[in-house]
């Protein structure tokens, strides 16, 4: 019983890391390359490589019902790659993406938000 619960929790944690990394990869793919340069971040290709590698490692680390269960010790690095993109790069790149990205009531004026990490 406890072993089954531990296995489910283990699977859920690794699956969450995979979804997080995949979300970061999909978001990086949809952003224009100029947005990364305008925001003062590394290039789009750099972030595609980081998030792509994070997604691949996270998938391989998922336990056997869905993934391979190999290299599970690298899942932490995969989580870090996805989290850094989603927390730092995505908010900086969003104003330069040329689409409506932001919450309502955030005042606009065409100026990107200042501050951050």
What does this protein structure show overall?
By secondary structure, the protein is an all-alpha fold. It has one domain. α1 packs antiparallel against α3, α1 packs parallel to α4 and α3 packs antiparallel against α4. The longest helix is centred in the first third of the chain and has 29 residues. About 4% of the residues have low confidence.
Share of residues in strands: under 5%
Query: What is the approximate shape?
Result: elongated
Q: Kindly state the percentage of residues in helix.
A: 55-70%
Largest β sheet strand count, sense and barrel closure:
none
Structural class: mainly alpha
Segments where pLDDT lies below 50 for 5+ residues? 103-107
Summarize the structure.
The chain is mainly alpha-helical.
Question: Which short descriptors sum up this protein?
Answer:
117 residues, mainly alpha, 4 helices, 0% strand
List the helices and strands and how they pair.
Blueprint: H1 2-30, H2 33-38, H3 44-61, H4 75-93
